[in-house]
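U., I forgot to send this yesterday:
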Amino acid sequence: MPPTYRPYAAALWMSGSIVSFTAMAIAGRAVAPDLDTFELMTWRSLIGLGLVLAVGGALGRLGAIRFDRIGTHLVRNIFHFAGQNLWFMALPLIPLAQVFALEFTSPLWVILLAPLLLGERITRSRALCALAGFAGILIVARPGLGGISPGVLMAAGSAIGFAGSAIFTKRLTRHEHVVSILFWLTAMQAVFGILASAADADVALPDATTLPWLALIGVAGLVAHLCLTRALMLAPASVVMPIDFVRLPAIAAIGAIYYAEPLDPWVVAGSAVIFAANWANIRAETRAQRSERSVTAA
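Result:
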């Protein structure tokens, strides 16, 4: 057990992540009628960039920003930009609980993408967990009942985008400070957003109604990732990630109370399968790492 293992502190940080991701979903739905997702991402990224520069400067960490892995940052942010846009597109189209349930398949997509992008092999346990997760997707989406809606496809696509982002973030964290990763995240996605927003020569500016929501999205996005990263530094993924699933019942309750969204038992059942697949994968990976350390120590 590492000396920094502090599960209760990790749970506290994860509560900040849960609140932040939930707030971002509510704010994203609030501005959807006025801004398209490219415009939303532009303003969110510009606000986030200002925060990174301000906080990083105050802490004297701007010197940690590096330029020697621009290519990896670029690929990582293409994945993340695609995933985040699809996530925001799905928010007004399907129930919030369904969006979050499909988003939670991201770790299972990492299993399938890692061999292609990182050269990792798919073990038997990883393959079985991925198949179980895919079964959970089918339960949530129910493709045989009238076809798959665009919102479901977007939410599922966002999970693939987030998976690609996670894979390249894993590469970057071996060498890059978090300030550098967040700087290139916000800077590159601001550029992507500006270019995509300007494509139709009709860019909507924030007004008194949308600006507070955009500020909330910008702050909540950074805080969510900071809290999640901090939690993973204090406790293993097998402790942290199950806590993250608290987001699902929380957003389901908010959807029911504020948006009159019915609690779909199929979404609950599919989410349980997805959670079980993620949990089984984490447990298998933890056992494998312990076994490798034992062999090395011997």
